[in-house]
Amino acid sequence: MKKIALLGSTGSIGQSTLSLCESYPDRFHPVTLAAGSNLDVAFAQCVRWRPQLISIATEELATKLTTKLREAGITGIEVVHGTAGTVRVATHPDANFVVSAIVGVAGLEATYAAVLSGKTVGLANKECLVAAGDLILAAARERNVDLLPIDSEHNAIHQCLRGGQPNEVKQIWLTASGGPFRNTPLADFDHITPAQALKHPTWVMGQRITVDSATLLNKGLELIEACRLFNLPPERVRVTVHPQSTIHSLVEFIDGSILAQISVTDMRLPILYALSYPDRIAVEGKTPLTFDLAALSQLDFQPPDFERFPCLRLAYQAAGASQNHCIALNASDEIAVDAFLNGKLPFLGIPRTIEKVLENTPTGSPASIQEVLSADLRARDLARTYLP
Ligand code: NAD
Ligand code: MG
Hints:
With 388 residues, the protein is of the alpha/beta class.
């Protein structure tokens, strides 16, 4: 039985994970939950799953949740809050598998704590590895902890890598859908609205990652995530635009063979793979996760356009520059996306803000999670100074 500590339980990945717990009650059960500020969903999850411990973003929300639970006659659920709360959720002694799906660096400390406490981690959150990949991977190696990627591209690479040895890998290919503006002329980019950017052609996801998919910054974060996870330099992590999102990524071996992973565009599949690794679980009749190969008619690939999508170029630059630059890339994007969603920054203001922050970021590599968080805060402050 996988006893799951679910970080980000109310989000898109969190809810997909709970849907698998519904489908496979004998195999997967959430024992602790961490939510942000969605009180109603957090309460409903307490009613349904009766976790031993739940963390919510603030003290005020924790008080409200405690009151709601008492009024509903539900006892035995400890309510905690804040970053310290997420760390307790991730390190709970009864949990043996942590799903890391809090969005942004808000998930960093809990994910790191999970690794330090020796728990297997299914990693959806990509910002953790972008900001602190070296530290997290070193801790995982030291403690022999499995870090199983849930991000679909890295999950695909993880699967394909089972077909060869590390020294047989020539390069890996991350597929990108290209987002909703794949064919939009550059001249129209400055009129893009948040509503248009939030309409992803193939995936349903949280707001930030959806906007990041429209700027291709998401692929940039994934490039850095892949460098860390698979120990490859940025020039051996390539990106190809594949609008159908049918192939989730590919590994090219030195003998010319390329292995690809194909499946439905449903995040339950990579989550299920991580939860059941190293085994595979039959999905027939359980969840609509089977892929109809007979109905597949077309697979297209094209090189990414770095001129219309400067965020991807900036990510390659950051990956080649230093860890501080990767932290700044992620932090400045979080600020810029937020401003864009609030109507305070045009779409192309996102890469412009990131570029200015990167230009003013000193080369360096933080030696601890505290230093990562300080560098992250500095980059956020800097990004704010460039907002209109
Ligand atoms: P989401 O916005 O739907 O959910 C985020 C979750 O984090 C929510 O439960 C929210 O309440 C919680 N949260 C936010 N701030 C918090 C805080 N300060 N403390 C505690 N909890 C907090 O996002 P998502 O789409 O589920 O993505 C989660 C992570 O997984 C992101 O890092 C994203 O890049 C990654 N990811 C998502 C997908 C996807 O298909 N959704 C695919 C690949 C990777
Ligand atoms: Mg992805």
